[in-house]
Structures are given as C-alpha cells and as structure tokens.
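Q: I'm building a small set of examples for a reading group on sequence design. Run inverse folding on the following structure and report the sequence directly after it, with nothing in between.
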C-alpha cells in the first residue's frame, strides 16, 4: 500500500498539486467529519494515463449535515471551473465509516460526484464490493489511516456476485434501449466494461479495463479480438467521442458480443458454489 504514491506521468507534479489543493478544500469543507482520502481505479492498479478518471473515496465519520453538504456542493461547483484538466476527472463519493466498513444490504445512496459533473447527487455508485476491494487492496492513501483499518476484507464471492448482477442488469437495460449504444464513447466503454465484468466473475478479482481487455484477448474467441482492440484504442478524447455516433461495424457487432459475454458470465456464475 503506497502512501502519497505519485503516478509515473510526465505531468505528475501538476497532478500532485491539484490533488493537494482538492484535499485541502475537502478538509476545509468537512472539518471534523473528515477521516481519509483514497484514490483507486486505474491509479491503484497502475494503468492510469491522461484519459483516466480520478477515482476517489473520502471516508467521513457519519452522515453529513445540510451545511456540510452545502459546503461540499460549493467546493465542487468552484472546482469544476479550475483550469487544471484534472478538475473535471474526479469521480467518487463521500462514505460514512459504518457503510465503508462492510457490505451494505440497503445499498444506501451516498453523496457522489460523477466524472465531468459539478454537482453532487445521491447514488450507490461507490457503495459496492468492487470499490471497497479496490480501495482496500489497491488504493492510494492521499490522507488518513491505512484503508485496511477501515474496510473489512472483501470475499471473492461478493465480487463475483456483484459483477454477475451488474452483467444481468446492464444487459437488460441495453436490450430495452439499444439505441443508447450508438455513441462514440459509450459503445467502446460497454465493450471494455463487459470484458471487466467477465474477468471478475471468472477470476474473483478486480482489474482495470485495459488489463481486462488484454485478458479477454487471451480468453475469448478470435472473432471478438478486433472489436476489443478498437475499444481500447478509442479511449482518447472521451468528451469529443460522446458527441459522435459509434463506428457502424463495431455497433453492429456489440450486441452479439454482449450476448456472448452474458451467456458465458451467467453460466460461470451459475456454476459457482453457494456461500
């Protein structure tokens, strides 16, 4: 576990400076509620680049008051206008210690900032086994105690069950509204996300999308290789791609790919021993 570990980027110093400024602002907004700030996702697994999110979890002592939420809302409104390109890459939640500790069957909504947004919303986006595992096992501590002190071990069965559930729900959503796939950012994002979900179901661990893509290339039938390779290659300029239509050939093949992954993931999940 690395404390204040810096990604090996040519602009690492700028990233450090931005994260230090963000941390100072978060501390000021939360006061005694602040416990720790943790970075995870591609930063944690070593695949971070200039197109990546800044995935974060801020541990807090308990439920935030209206004044504390207002201070955070003001912070993110102002931060969104910061000239640093990292200001619009933050993606994460403010999580009370009690919820952070272990599985929350209520799937409580938490104050969440989506990538590119300036507004906090209520979401269970970070109230997930995958996020707990990432923070505990691969997280970067920017401030606060070791996350192993705050988060109980996450069983592989929890990771597999969550991935299988997401696979089912996402497939149902896409089948109900397939037109959403016709987007230059969303279509390759779906391909890489399905690679990642299948990896978690079959391997019981969490990796970044690029790592999951490499695993899928070594695991899946060759007919899907070019689709996956192009999905990896389209990570640049997500904002610009979100305003474009998906590649016609890739769009036509994405739903069959989804069904292939869904069948394989469902079969594997069904074969898993009960807890």
């Amino acid at each position: 576990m690395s404390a204040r570990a810096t990604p090996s980027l040519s602009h690492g110093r700028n990233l450090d400076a931005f994260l230090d400024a963000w941390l100072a602002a978060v501390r000021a907004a939360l006061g005694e509620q602040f416990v720790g700030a943790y970075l995870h996702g591609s930063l944690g697994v070593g695949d971070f680049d200039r197109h990546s999110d800044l995935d974060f979890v801020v541990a807090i002592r308990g439920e935030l008051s209206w004044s504390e939420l207002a201070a955070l809302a003001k912070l993110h409104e102002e931060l969104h206008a910061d000239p640093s390109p990292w200001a619009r890459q933050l993606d994460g939640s403010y999580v009370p210690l009690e919820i952070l500790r272990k599985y929350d069957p209520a799937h409580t909504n938490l104050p969440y900032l989506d990538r590119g947004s300036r507004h906090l919303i209520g979401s269970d986006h970070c109230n997930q086994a995958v996020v707990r595992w990432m923070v505990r096992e691969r997280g970067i501590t920017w401030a606060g105690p070791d996350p192993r002190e705050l988060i109980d071990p996450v069983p592989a069965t929890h990771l597999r069950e969550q991935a299988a559930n997401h696979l089912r729900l996402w497939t149902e959503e896409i089948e109900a509204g397939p037109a959403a796939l016709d987007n230059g950012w969303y279509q390759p994002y779906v391909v890489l996300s399905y690679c990642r979900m299948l990896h978690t179901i079959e391997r019981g661990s969490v990796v970044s999308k690029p790592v999951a893509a490499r695993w899928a290339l070594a695991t899946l039938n060759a007919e899907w290789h070019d689709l996956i390779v192009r999905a990896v290659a389209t990570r640049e300029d997500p904002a610009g791609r979100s305003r474009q239509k998906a590649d016609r050939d890739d769009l036509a093949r994405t739903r069959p790919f989804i069904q292939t992954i869904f069948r394989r993931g469902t079969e594997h999940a069904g074969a898993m021993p009960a807890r």
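The radius of gyration is 19 Å.
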